[in-house]
Amino acid sequence: MVLLDNREVKQGWQALKDQVCGLFTKHGATIKSAKRWDERRLAYPIQHQLRGTYLLAYYEAETSELAAIRRELEYAEAVFRHMTLACEEIPADAYDPEAEFDESAVRVEDTSMTDLPEDEPEEEAPAEEAKAEESGAGEDAAEEAPAAEASSDAAAENTEETKEGDA
């Protein structure tokens, strides 16, 4: 499975498919089936892109060549991600003809092009103040809290001195 950049897919599917399959055959792999699986929104942006197209390819290759194939896929600019799995048997529908699709209909969503909302100032502060006023606390309670902590620290010191004095 190979996840491809939709900007490259939009420029020509067949040429891109041939280019990616060429990476496999360059290292002695035999392509059994390769076709477009789907075009989807990504879970997170990859190279500032929010959409990608999946190429599902079944191939046979020597295990000694897998590292070289993976390396080629890593350095291919059109490939976002790839995953190689061992397959006992190729499904029958893998040999079905690839469905036709309109390359111009492929959506390209670039994160730099999207209008993301600006960070708006949080309005939680007035709500917190309102809660404090309702409970009767307010600013006086906030000033008293450090004083209460200081008096508990002093009490702890007195207790420690008493224990040392008794020993």
Describe, in plain words, how this protein is organized in 3D.
It is built from five helices and four strands, in the order βααββαβαα. It folds into two domains: 2-105, Ribosomal protein S6/Translation elongation factor EF1B (Alpha-Beta Plaits, 2-Layer Sandwich); 124-166. A hairpin with a 2-residue loop joins strand 2 and strand 3. The protein has a four-stranded antiparallel beta sheet with strand order 2-3-1-4. The longest helix has 28 residues, at 139-166. It is globular. The chain has 167 residues and is α+β, with helices and mostly antiparallel strands. It has helices at residues 6-11, 13-25, 66-75, 124-134, 139-166; strands at 2-5, 30-46, 49-60, 79-82.
Briefly say what this structure is.
This protein has helices spanning 6-11, 13-25, 66-75, 124-134, 139-166; strands spanning 2-5, 30-46, 49-60, 79-82. It has 167 residues and is an alpha+beta fold. The protein folds into 2 domains: 2-105, Ribosomal protein S6/Translation elongation factor EF1B (Alpha-Beta Plaits, 2-Layer Sandwich), CATH 3.30.70.60; 124-166.
